[in-house]
Amino acid sequence: MASSTLICDTEPWKELRAHVEDINKTHLRDLMNDTSRCQSMMMEFDGILLDYSRQRATTGTLNKLFSLAEAARVKEKINRMFNGERINSTENRSVLHVALRAPRDAVINSDGKNVVPEVWQVLDKIRDFSERVRSGAWVGATGKALKDVVAIGIGGSFLGPLFVHTALQTEAEAIECARGRQLRFLANVDPIDVARNITGLNPETTLVVVVSKTFTTAETMLNARTLREWISSALGPQAVAKHMVAVSTNLKLVEQFGIDPNNAFAFWDWVGGRYSVCSAVGVLPLSLQYGFPIVEKFLKGASSVDQHFYSAPFEKNVPVLLGLLSVWNVSFLGYSARAILPYSQALEKFAPHIQQVSMESNGKGVSIDGVPLPYETGEIDFGEPGTNGQHSFYQLIHQGRVIPCDFIGVVKSQQPVYLKDEVVSNHDELMSNFFAQPDALAYGKTPEQLQKENVAEHLVSHKTFSGNRPSLSILLPSLNAYNIGQLLAIYEHRVAVQGFVWGINSFDQWGVELGKSLASQVRKQLHASRKKGESVEGFNFSTKTLITTYLEASADVPSDPSTLLPKI
């Protein structure tokens, strides 16, 4: 396929379009009766069991999807990514988050230079620094140990590390390693987020990690200045160097801010924000909380999936299979959303992170060559842990619009509970739902079944479930740092596969720029109105009215306020 050819113009795409008619003649009730089909749609990798037999697909569908992957040169694109070629062409960058968790002796090149030694140089620096802080060798300005950490960052600098932290909080080994320590994340520029993050903290025992590649991100730097003031007002300006460190590449601005450049931890332009959790962005705060050995296990789990993704044939390649099935659901069956449903409360922040990874990566309207696409890309990702989601939005999933679901289960609970004389344990109760829901979606319930149960005639249509609603199940052996790394990498690569097939750039995010640019104009207007009393000009009627109303209703804000920090 020539680079300028859209994937929708290829024969495999056209064959899949025609194949939809065949699939529409089938029902998952019938497909699930084919044992050999179901057997072929289950696979195991490194302790993880994947079951995609409840997808609206046959073995013939899969073969057609593999032909589509070949037409889209997916294998070639994977190789180019791992070889450090600049596949992020709009920003002229390599895409090498796999290098962040590569073994120390691996060779991964960018511009002809092996980047792995640089990665490990930063990892070793993090190991050393985090051990000094955790052991009390590095202390704050008043000589007290720094047991509380606030990580300031937004988007990819926040969602990924928060997901991993939340997943580790209740894991037995991680609990022991984190005893007596706190990790909080400050992301939103809303002052309420500041208030919530510093409530109950003592500046004397707090270390702040400012995460900003350029050290210019508006929200992050305002929050950083706010916490700098919080520290300075309590301990004096000289305390900043002892209580604040940075994850950044802009050493000049780091130093101007008051942070010792020696306490800046680097990452590279070949790391996209939403793919940066395995860089210093995530590794530093997580190592401060749990110790580097725990975080290293997380990196090894992700690396295991990286190698699998790179080397496994597509028929046995978990991220490739998941990516192709997502393309099938979105582009051919017309399902625009996907529900991520982890049956583990520890994974409550997984869906919000994957929401960014997926929607910021694949929410594009043009090909990588800038050609407007005649087909939609990306999907609307959302999710909630089971069984909470069952009492929230499963009604729509079962009887409303069709939304393909990812069910994620864990064999061994992080915190098992057993009660004498109960029918099952708490975890078995949870997993009963994990096993039941996919079948409920697939099989549904027919009017005939309801009539046999003597359901009142006027309620039959209300209690009918059409079924034929696709899902897949991922069963993890446990939820330790290694498994969390595996899960992250599976979804990262799945998203890349979708983008490779659709022929888009999954590694830029120009769509976030316009809103930020317009916010800059509003910021100038608010400043001029507050400081100089200037009227609101240069906006459309609706926006002008909203801003004017806001300014009039908040006229009690002083034009030249003295510093005020939250008080809770």
From TrEMBL:
Subunit field text: Homodimer.
InterPro entries noted in UniProt: G6P_Isomerase, G6P_Isomerase_C, Phosphoglucose_isomerase_CS, SIS_dom_sf, SIS_PGI_1, SIS_PGI_2
PANTHER family reported in the protein's UniProt record: GLUCOSE-6-PHOSPHATE ISOMERASE (PTHR11469)
Protein name: Glucose-6-phosphate isomerase
Reactions performed catalytically: alpha-D-glucose 6-phosphate = beta-D-fructose 6-phosphate
Organism in which the protein naturally occurs: Nicotiana sylvestris
Family membership noted in the UniProt record: Belongs to the GPI family.
Keywords recorded for this protein, A-Z: Cytoplasm, Gluconeogenesis, Glycolysis, Isomerase
Superkingdom of this protein's organism: Eukaryota
GO cellular component: a single term: cytosol
Gene3D superfamilies named in the record: 1.10.1390.10, Glucose-6-phosphate isomerase like protein, domain 1 (3.40.50.10490)
GO molecular function, one term: carbohydrate derivative binding
